[in-house]
């Protein structure tokens, strides 16, 4: 038996190490997704028997104005969140400089990363308070009155996304800091010999070595924008009048508060389909990049 193990350990060892993760993935992710899709084809309050209605929930979803408001807000989240990777890279380049006091500045940028999303939401709720918040103090310094952004259906989503961008930018900064610490000194030295400085050094030498980090940063940012829930829940509960709701929060609201688990599962299935499209595109881009690099 020992001889057999020694002979086959080149594939047995990684298989045994990966097996628990694969088991969890199939149990928690795949089976849950299939179960959610099955529930979406029923009318179910979460307690009684499920009643088969086919695509009835999806037809209702297609005619639901709130669904399109939530979908539009998710697109706003997605577009605004795309600022996180470049801003994270810019901050990483700044704090990576060997300047006195930069370590202290770097530690300050790590603060939002260690805070819970709920804490960030509460802090920014105070910031946006029109009576005594930081935004009110800034407006008062210029002799103006701060708008109640969390009560304005036109600005509330943008205000929440700005709050959520704070920790997301920090996360991207950490990714890029790790990438900057693994840059090839030989390539940088060769670039300096060839006269590369400033923007040319960044564009032609540094950024090509950060391609994989950029892929990860964009993937995490897109997924974070699509599954946004906690900030909306803490800051507005989807209000005012559902104007700040996103798909994840609408799913939660329909399932938990309205006892419409079938309808909530239909929303979850649509959100899963959107994420699946992005994941397929993301993996195809990674494979294409690696094949071209190879």
Could you explain the architecture of this structure?
Helices cover 74% and strands 1% of the residues. It has 15 helices and two strands. α1 (2-39) packs across α15, α2 packs across α15 (261-293) and α3 (65-81) runs parallel beside α9. The protein is flat. The two termini are 39 Å apart.
Instruction: Report strand %.
Output: under 5%
Query: Helical segment tally?
Result: 15
Query: What's the structural domain tally?
Result: 1
Q: In CATH's first tier, which class applies?
A: Mainly Alpha
Number of strands: 2
Radius of gyration: 24 Å
Key descriptive features of the protein:
294 residues, two-stranded antiparallel ribbon, MetI-like fold, flat
Secondary-structure topology with pairs:
Elements: H1 2-39, E1 42-43, E2 51-52, H2 56-62, H3 65-81, H4 84-95, H5 102-109, H6 111-114, H7 117-128, H8 134-141, H9 156-180, H10 185-193, H11 198-209, H12 211-226, H13 230-235, H14 247-257, H15 261-293
Antiparallel strand pairs: 1-2
């Amino acid at each position: 038996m020992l001889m057999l193990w020694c002979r086959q350990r080149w594939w047995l060892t990684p298989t045994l190490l990966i097996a628990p993760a694969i088991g969890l993935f199939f149990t928690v992710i795949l089976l849950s997704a299939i179960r959610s899709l099955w529930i979406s084809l029923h009318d179910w309050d979460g307690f009684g028997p499920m009643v088969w209605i086919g695509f009835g929930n999806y037809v209702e979803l297609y005619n639901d104005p709130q669904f399109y408001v939530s979908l539009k807000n998710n697109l706003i989240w997605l577009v605004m969140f795309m600022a996180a990777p470049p801003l994270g890279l810019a901050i990483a380049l700044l704090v990576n400089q060997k300047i006195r006091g930069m370590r202290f500045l770097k530690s300050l940028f790590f603060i939002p990363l260690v805070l819970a999303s709920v804490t960030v939401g509460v802090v920014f709720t105070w910031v946006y308070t029109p009576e005594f918040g930081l935004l009110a103090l800034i407006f008062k310094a210029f002799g103006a009155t701060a708008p109640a952004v969390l009560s304005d259906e036109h600005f509330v989503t943008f205000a929440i996304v700005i709050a959520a961008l704070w920790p997301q930018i920090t996360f991207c900064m950490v990714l890029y800091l790790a990438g900057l610490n693994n840059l090839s000194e030989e390539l940088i030295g060769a670039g300096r010999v060839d006269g590369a400085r400033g923007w040319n050094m960044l564009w032609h030498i540094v950024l090509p070595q950060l391609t994989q980090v950029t892929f990860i940063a964009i993937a995490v940012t897109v997924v974070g924008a699509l599954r946004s829930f906690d900030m909306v829940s803490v800051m507005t509960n989807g209000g005012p009048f559902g104007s700040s709701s996103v798909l994840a929060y609408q799913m939660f609201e329909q399932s938990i508060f309205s006892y419409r688990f079938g309808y909530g599962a239909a929303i979850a299935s649509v959100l899963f389909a959107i994420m699946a499209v992005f994941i397929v595109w993301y993996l195809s881009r990674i494979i294409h990049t690696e094949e071209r690099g190879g």
